Amino acid sequence: MSRLAYHLDIEPHRIAAMILRYWYLLLSSWPRLLELLYWPALQIITWGFLQTYIAQNAGFFARAGGTLIGAVILWDILFRGQLGFSISFLEEMWARNLGNLMMSPLKPIEFLLSLMVMSLIRLTIGVIPMTLLAMFFFRFNFYAIGLPLIAFFCNLIFTSWSVGIFVSGLVLRNGLGAESIVWTLMFGLMPLVCIYYPVTVLPNWLQYVAWCLPPTYVFEGMRALLIQHVFRPDLMISALAINAVLLIGSFAGFMALLRSAKRNGSLLQGGE
Question: Model-level pTM?
């Protein structure tokens, strides 16, 4: 890792300084902390009671124990991972501090790495209480999934970072007038990644689109594990390969949008 950092000319102390900045910002505002806990808790309770009702009234869902709650938790990892990344970026836009950062010794890749770490921190604050609620109220032990959980988590967080990097570049180039894309893009993908239903539910032509998205493989893998008790490593490897392409593409897109923002002066404006 240190050799890679040397070749990329990455300074860990600058990344640590940015992480510390966002950490202090998070701790300084109780509404920010409350928001991280409130929405995941609300989701798991709402959907958990729905699954309880379905399990009591439908034989298939009774056999599929936990698929709905598991899907809710995995979706929250995907959505919160992207949101945690983008919110930290937007904090700089709202404070009109991005121009200062870009003129400092901080490199774009160091900035993005610090946002990735902050997305993990924010995600941890929200998701761990969510899984404990699922265990307490609905006797669904998310951690009992075991080692496959690592593959699920990694693929989802890689996708969330790819989306976060790309939308951050769009906001950087177009200003806060494009801020809504931060909140809406992931929800636009929601029907295609097949969170609550198998890919076969989609029309044939749309299934090809779904299989181009890494989260589709994760949710299909989760259903195979919970319903058929079979782990599908082929799905996880396919998702990882697509994620590698998306991460490289999103970073290249961010750099192109950053250069465009510098040329057009939108880096310092950051308004609507």
Answer: 0.81
